[in-house]
Amino acid sequence: KTLKKKTEEIPIDGAFVFIGLDPNTTFLKDNDVRLNDWGFIVTGHELSHTDHLSGAYEKRDPYLLETSLPGVFAAGDVRDNSTKQVVSAAGEGGTAALFVREYLKHA
User: Which one of 37, 65, 88, 97 has the fewest CB atoms closer than 10 angstroms to its CB?
Assistant: First the structure.
């Protein structure tokens, strides 16, 4: 039995394309930004569970979206434990900007 392929056009204003779950963080491999075993950037409180923190964190804990490199923040799908949702990534970007401002106040 031969199956007939059917094509249908649907008028839409936009589409969300799923591109996979591999983070594009290979450029950070030989850097001070800590990645987990899958290549996602570890941020905020999760850094407290590691011994890879720099001396800059002796006086304070990392901010919510701050990486193991003080003053460098990560948001969205490349971040460990993120929801991998576009709306969350956009919100995290705004939050990261606020934390950058907070970081600069005390730098």
Answer: 37
Which candidate, 31, 25, 32, 30, places its Cα nearest to that of 79? 25
Rounded Cα–Cα distance for residues 14 and 46 (Å): 35
Q: How far apart are CA 61 and CA 27, in angstroms?
A: 25
72, 66 in Cβ contact below 8 A?
yes
- CA separation for the pair 82, 8 (Å, rounded): 35
pTM of the model: 0.77
Per-residue pLDDT reduced to its tens digit, 4-37: 788 888 888 887 766 668 899 999 988 889 999 9
Q: How far apart are CA 43 and CA 70, in angstroms?
A: 10
Please list the residues that pair with 73 across neighbouring strands: 66
